[in-house]
Amino acid sequence: MTAPTNKAAWLVKAGSPLEVADVPMPIPGPGEIVVKNAAITINPLDTHMQDVGVFVQQWPAIIGCDVAGEVYKVGADVTRFKKGDRVTGHAINLTTGRPQDGAYALYTVVPSDKAAILPDSIAFTDGAVLPLALEAAVCALSLKVPGDALPGVATPALGLPYPSLDEHVKPIGKVLIVYGGSSAVGSMTTQIATAAGIHVISIAGKHNFALSKSCGAVAVIDRADPDVVAQAVEAVRQSNLEFIGIFDAISSTPTYAHDLEILEKLGGGHLAAVHPPPADVPENVKAGMIFAVNDVAAPVWRDFVTPALESGRLQCLPRPMVVGKGLGSIQGALEKMRKGVSAAKIVVEL
Ligand SMILES: NC(=O)c1ccc[n+]([C@@H]2O[C@H](COP(=O)([O-])OP(=O)(O)OC[C@H]3O[C@@H](n4cnc5c(N)ncnc54)[C@H](OP(=O)(O)O)[C@@H]3O)[C@@H](O)[C@H]2O)c1
Fold first, then answer.
1. Scanning 118, 155, 249, 277, which has its CA 20 to 30 A from the CA of 139?
2. What is the total count of domains within the chain?
3. Could you tell me if 116 and 149 lie in one domain?
């Protein structure tokens, strides 16, 4: 039997299309697994990495964060996985810069504490939607102490509990607004917060109310409503719960303006953002930016993801939009991402 060979969709320089070419078969280090990818996803960041090379540490690069597939090899000290296991995992080229850690390849290295067994009932194309969004959600909710997201930009530190497998989890008496509840990161944060006993009020498009509710949001406010601020404030007051603050999964100039108005009316709180938050926030606002490669998610990967997928407590949402098959389809998938998606995650099968 001939040994399998590896190929990748390489990013050779900023602003150029991906090029499919050979790449050495990765060798897993201690604590790492090699995944034979069956499906990968496209994240908004990938388009910026391609356009301007942001975060690229080494050229040529293999980018991409989300993989689902079968374990091909395990490194030393790996006890949770064996060859042939079906997994979903978070590839971290973003922080290591190593080509073997990028998802746009047939075989990718994934840290074993950023992976989980995918139940047989869940397709690889569904399982691939989870990793980056899951780690972003846990980073947004459960960090206890601010760290560095980017130079000079701290992470948020909401210090909230991890999600529980108990379907009757005790409510913790706190309410969080998720701005952008239909986005991949917003819908996952809604799911994870709900599973931690947090009351979530989401802001999303009317066409995505059902999605946000299926993620656990108790109330959803129309993002297009001119009274979005007043409605959010009223929903928080009506909950009679302690206001945590806002997770802004969009983090644009208009959403920041709404966030600050809501926070002002509710006496301050956390503003956890996905991009650098406004520089000047009032003293009663604790603002930070998540960085979704963070060890805070390890216990969730280890103890929550697989049983929660089995029980349906964790759902692979938003739904995958499979746009092609093979490494040669990834460039077209990136073009689709540039046009934007509504409550969907772009997936390529390999
Ligand atoms: N810092 C980090 O570590 C990190 C990690 C992951 C992602 N991110 C960033 O987080 C952002 C979201 O990523 P994603 O993958 O979750 O995005 P996504 O799923 O592609 O976002 C698309 C969704 O956002 C909704 N949306 C857009 N503008 C909105 C607004 N003003 N109010 C409410 N909803 C709005 C859209 O709703 P409609 O359907 O109504 O159009 C759509 O459903 C991106 O900027 C990404 O780069 C940062």
1. 118
2. 2
3. no
Residues 283 and 138 in one domain: yes
Q: How far apart are CA 104 and CA 115, in angstroms?
A: 17
Name residues contacting ligand 1 (CB within 6 A): 43-45, 132, 136, 180, 182-185, 203-205, 208, 223, 249-250, 255, 274, 289-292, 341-343
Are residues 226 and 276 both part of a single domain? yes
Residue 25 belongs to domain spanning:
6-129+319-349
| Tens of pLDDT, residues 240-272 | 999 999 999 999 999 999 999 999 999 999 999
The answer to whether the CB of 65 falls within 8 A of the CB of 84 is: no
| Residue 151 burial class via C-beta count within 10 angstroms: exposed 0-12, middle 13-18, buried 19 and up | exposed
107, 172: one domain: no
* From 148, 185, 228, mutation site for ligand 1 pocket: most ligand atoms within 8 A of C-beta: 185
pLDDT in the model for residue 2: 80
Q: Whose CA is nearest to atom 14 of ligand 1?
A: 184
CA of 247 to the centre of ligand 1 (A): 12
Please compute the mean of the pLDDT values over residues 112-123 and round it to a whole number.
Answer: 98
Residues 260, 113: Cα–Cα separation, whole Å? 36
User: Residue 3's pLDDT is what?
Assistant: 84
Check whether residue 142 and residue 273 sit in a common domain. yes
115 domain-assigned: yes
Final residue of a structural domain among 289, 306, 335: 289
Ligand 1 center from residue 250 Cα (angstroms): 5
State mean pLDDT over 230-236.
Answer: 98
**For atom 21 of ligand 1, which residue has the closest CA?**
183
User: What does pTM read for this prediction?
Assistant: 0.98
pLDDT in tens, 36-69: 999 999 999 999 999 999 999 999 999 999 999 9
Which is nearest to 141 in space by CA: 95, 184, 89, 200? Answer: 200
Q: State whether 275 and 140 are in the same domain.
A: yes
* pLDDT for the residue numbered 83: 98
